Amino acid sequence: MQTIRTVEAAAHVGQPVRLLGWLYNLRQLGGVTFIVLRDGWGTLQAVTESQADLEPLAGLALESVIALEGVIVATPQAPGGVELHQPKVEVITAVTDPPPIPLNKREIKAGLPALLDHAVVANRHPVRQAIFRLSAGAMAGFRKTLTAHHFTEVQTPKLVASATESGANVFELKYFGRPAYLAQSPQFYKQIMVGVFGRVFEVGPVFRAEPHDTTRHANEYVSLDVEFGFIENHFTVMALAREVIAGIMQELAAHYPEELALLGAQLPTILPEIPHIHFAAAQELILKRHGVDVRGEPDLSPQDERWLGEWAQQEHGSDFLFVTGYPMGKRPFYTHPDPANPAYSNSFDLLFRGTELITGGQRLHRYEEYLAALAKANLPVEPFESYLEAFRYGMPPHGGFAIGLERLLMQLLALPNVRLATLFPRDQKRLTP
Amino acid sequence: MQTIRTVEAAAHVGQPVRLLGWLYNLRQLGGVTFIVLRDGWGTLQAVTESQADLEPLAGLALESVIALEGVIVATPQAPGGVELHQPKVEVITAVTDPPPIPLNKREIKAGLPALLDHAVVANRHPVRQAIFRLSAGAMAGFRKTLTAHHFTEVQTPKLVASATESGANVFELKYFGRPAYLAQSPQFYKQIMVGVFGRVFEVGPVFRAEPHDTTRHANEYVSLDVEFGFIENHFTVMALAREVIAGIMQELAAHYPEELALLGAQLPTILPEIPHIHFAAAQELILKRHGVDVRGEPDLSPQDERWLGEWAQQEHGSDFLFVTGYPMGKRPFYTHPDPANPAYSNSFDLLFRGTELITGGQRLHRYEEYLAALAKANLPVEPFESYLEAFRYGMPPHGGFAIGLERLLMQLLALPNVRLATLFPRDQKRLTP
What we know:
Chain A is of the alpha+beta class. Chain A has helices spanning about 50-55, 110-115, 120, 125-150, 185-195, 235-255, 255-260, 280-290, 300-315, 365-375, 385-390, 405-415; strands at about 1-5, 15-30, 30-40, 45-50, 65-75, 80-95, 150-155, 160, 170-175, 180, 200-205, 220-230, 275-280, 320-325, 335-340, 340-345, 345-350, 355-365, 400-405. Chain A is about 30% helix and about 30% strand. In chain A, helix 4 (about 125-150) crosses helix 6 and helix 4 (about 125-150) crosses helix 12. The radius of gyration of chain A is 26 Å and the shape is elongated.
């Protein structure tokens, strides 16, 4: 007898099969009992009118691990169009207590703290499964797109010697009798690797010791990083960012239609050219449209971003908007200034439905520019010596960007909190599970 | 004019093209000058007899960033069978000092410390590039094989609340006023995720505060992790490990023949079934073949592993050997014992050419078994409460394994030190670059 996954059932109509999974639901309707099995990919309903078939389940709670054998029957009214008849149940691992979060309701009713406290079990809920399957799909789409563009994947160290990139908000640890720090991003290393491979990407954890507690930040998250050489300016980088986002969405559309449907997700409109607006023009626009004068502010607030997202939707029919030319003052020292107006930078944020999703831009690439930028930022040269070696020995004009994986899922699925797009979130108060 | 990569040159014979990269070499032979450009994928030689063509390069050092324009000409005696004629050189970023490690010699003569000190530049050497392209290929092959087997990729937290997995050798950090630790492996989380997806894999950094200094250990490395449910025992896991290794090698063979040739790599023989030997039998074998009595030792030494690797080669013609059934005493508390002989475990190591490459096995899966195992190991229950929730609410028989990415490359390429397979290694003395 063939062992199949739930999602393969429709291809086995009329055949005897074996399925392995968890007891997801058990319902009696009149004399008929529905036994629903969940595995890592979906659910399948078995039907019986025989009490003898149910005997192995006596006294067991949901989430018991079971094997189900029977015959697949086409049943238009059943979920998925098939069900299992003449079920023979075998208990593999008996569970006696009901799960702390009900897993077999369409919606998860538990509040966020309870959900996160019990994430170990709650992530088995089909809605939670679907979110994290999309997360895997997003990573696959990211890599596929960049591999097609001849990028090379790298894995760079997360333990670093100095808290240098931004100078703040880094976690410090004890490293064989001296301090070390957790990398806030692979920024320096991905730039260095442009000198090796020309075009690189990395998928990995980043660590931010940011003390603020918001619905869209976490202290550890997965960063999808890109960096490449021989660009003209940040517009070259923006064009690639568009391709990458489109590649991710194509991957999800092609391979995850059930997950998207279950989550009620609307795939975004990605125009052939995503509209862009300069930072200064964006502030003018906010004044004009909303009567709020944010000119002179060095950054956009979440409210500003929402307003700009609305404008992009109304004006361009776009879920995405590039804001370019952020003031140099708020950008890190390696940022390339706008040659035409050096108070502004060749940088960008990509807003997705009114929230920042991607930050990127062109970087400095000449050794002397770095020495000058460090001096201007009152930073010492010594901790940057290895990094500077890349520029001393030849770097092309280059740039890149980073996408927060969980942020991407949050925006795509309209989740109210980035923690809901994280398997086991880390924030100021939460280190477990 | 089309901009191409070096490796695309052979497809553009007779065409005018533009290439972007680094000045890799400049040689004069009689009246002929060879300008060699290196990009992220290879090198291409340009040839000229005109001094005027060379003028832009006057006073510049190797590693200057350049654009080369010219016509691709089929030249059987040139490296790669093509060269660029009528070169027009444009300098993009001028370099004035020669690189700290010569990059244009076939072999890297620098010693290991110098090589690692200057890894930022040294990794541009074609031999170094090739190693890390294979590393990217190994990750791709790993993911491709597991995706084909319906595994789901996960990303689990690296910041954890307790130093619990092995109780020692973890890095401690300050986390908002309390201690946190860096995950030594995703072991607990990948097991938990078997309860969600049934079959999972993860590629990510792991952190080991091990104080010993060997040629085959690092304090941070990339772990390729696998875990899956509904296994019979560790032999189910070993069968998958064989598929994964074969998938990685197929990926390298298919897409990286030039890199393998440049590095003189011999792809391993992977028999349809990799031979296996029980731990106790392995110790007997060592006594019989080498007269050394290691019976009673709780683990295999590096010398033992080399001897066993030789035996696998001579006896089975295999580059790989599974050693099964390690004593329970040396394995972590979640290890499943051998039901027939509970002093031994349902675990394995995979030796690759006489060095441990993979560790894996079957895990405990019943809640009560965990409570008993923790009690036996004198470990408190409280720090494991979230982890135990997975087992309390139903886990199938499961197991998995982990491959050290850098170790895999080291063994495949016969490198003398795992640091040579690491972009920017971390050891007791080294936190930079």
